[in-house]
Amino acid sequence: MKLGSLKSALSKDGELCVVSRDLKTAVKATHIAPNLREALESWKDKEASLQKLYTDLNEGKAANAFPVKESDFHSALPRTWLFADGSAFIYHIKLVRMARKAALPETLETVPLMYQGECGQFLAPTEDIPQRDFAHGTDFEGEVGVVTDFVPMGVTPDEALKYIRLFVLINDVSLRGLIPEELAGGFGFFQSKPASALSPFAVTADELGEAYKGGRVHLPLNVTYNGQFFGKANAGAMHFHFGQLIAHAAKTRNLAAGTVIGSGTVSNDDHASGSSCLAEKRMIEQIENGAIKTPFMKAGDTIEMQMSDAQGQSIFGKISQKVKAV
Amino acid sequence: MKLGSLKSALSKDGELCVVSRDLKTAVKATHIAPNLREALESWKDKEASLQKLYTDLNEGKAANAFPVKESDFHSALPRTWLFADGSAFIYHIKLVRMARKAALPETLETVPLMYQGECGQFLAPTEDIPQRDFAHGTDFEGEVGVVTDFVPMGVTPDEALKYIRLFVLINDVSLRGLIPEELAGGFGFFQSKPASALSPFAVTADELGEAYKGGRVHLPLNVTYNGQFFGKANAGAMHFHFGQLIAHAAKTRNLAAGTVIGSGTVSNDDHASGSSCLAEKRMIEQIENGAIKTPFMKAGDTIEMQMSDAQGQSIFGKISQKVKAV
């Protein structure tokens, strides 16, 4: 099934909606749970009712269904308790570290890199990306994410896969100009990772069909920058699968229901697939042409991300944001 | 005023209570706001009613007041949207970096160190600290924290002080054995900073009287380890004040109402004041005696933290935790 959160003046969590497979119609599900955050806290009790409503909606039998206007929707999960963002695409790590002349960690292929990101107020998927200072080096990062149920501390990677409830796309906004100093301090990302946006819709694994296997989503992430093709890297190239990322996050803590685990920037070493962030494109330009041509984002630049199924149907709706000077 | 959150089977946010100045009686305030997290989201509308109830309670005029049993209370704010933990005591940074033979950042005295910690499920102040592996090097860290209202991005340090709504104590549980590898990876703390606990009660600035000045709480943090004196370092020794820490956190993002900003481990360079974490004591042993004597925590070890006013009255109630093998 597909779920979304209508923007609401009354609640920062939005209002829970079930959305049709073709993303054309939706129906409020607030009688089942007021919002997705709370639905995830009692998923076992809510799932069947939500699934029934989804079936009715797809069959045109849901009362009070309404046409979807994506800009009325917030991030699928407007706020939650933990965003643990991994970095599971090794090629991305290699390129961005090359860009900032940083060494590769010795445990590159054995221990996932992960930081804790802002999740108390995701940007809406069509909300402007605020930019205080162009020198901050504003960049986008296209990612796939999973939303988990409560996960007990110490879970194994294989067991961890069983706690995945939903999939989303993420635009993990990154401020490249602030990263070197933050990482040099030793405490990792903070100012360099401001609020991100999720896709308007979150979907269960069955919506991905055959594309979801081995704990990875084997589909290209379509990225369009300022209206031009930018990337179609396949998200199936994750070195660590989502079960490994969840297990890493849960090594020393339980994960609250509603935890978002990010894949890190989707990246393929085939350059014809393009990129899912500017930092990679800039580094590839440096390697191939000896000079960086592409600047970081400036006010007015637009970024779109989406992923389609084998039939060309958009799965998660579209992240479509513009940088705005503030 | 003083506020607390009764543990509740119905809500992970607990039930909002007003607590008397002497911490002997409390009264539910759920008719004003169901929980502290939500009260903070509309503080302007709730503050006067809570203050009125506090006055009534202290005067013995509040209906349905009940005697306080601290173990019935969760962390003052059981869960929230952001825990931005600073490291404002320079002497602490010097000692722990000496311990792990890490260089001091060049910006030690000009830019606060800060990471984002687990806040979706604080431990209760009397809850066991779970320990999966003794080799993780379990340590406590005694801190003072502030809870903010919504803070706009780009706030100045002086302006930032105006957004402080409450003060708490924090036991920031740290797994020293996991820190070196995590910091070497470049992404900072994650597994090494599991769930922390807050004090049972959160208080407004007026409860601190003259002790709160210059954005710092000028009172000793009393730390007792396994029933013995461990530390009484004065929290007024912060190099960066809370306004500077809030402004650092808000440089590239708005802060959600309910954000907790931690001071970092309270630390004085006067060794007679003791320490607020084991890592410091171990390093001081190394410096003074040439060898570390104190091990990290093991199952059964107990840690207590509290802070008293000039009259000896406990301000925040007591954090009192025991390590438990899981």
TrEMBL record, chains A, B:
Record InterPro entries: FAA_hydro_N, Fumarylacetoacetase-like_C, Fumarylacetoacetase_C_sf
Transmembrane segments: none
Fumarylacetoacetase N-terminal domain sequence ranges: 1-79
GO MF: catalytic activity
UniProt domain Fumarylacetoacetase-like C-terminal: residue ranges: 83-322
Gene3D superfamilies given in the database record: Fumarylacetoacetase-like, C-terminal domain (3.90.850.10)
Pfam families, sorted: FAA_hydro_N_2, FAA_hydrolase
Cited PANTHER family: BLL6422 PROTEIN (PTHR43211:SF1), FUMARYLACETOACETATE HYDROLASE (PTHR43211)
Listed name of the protein: 2-keto-4-pentenoate hydratase
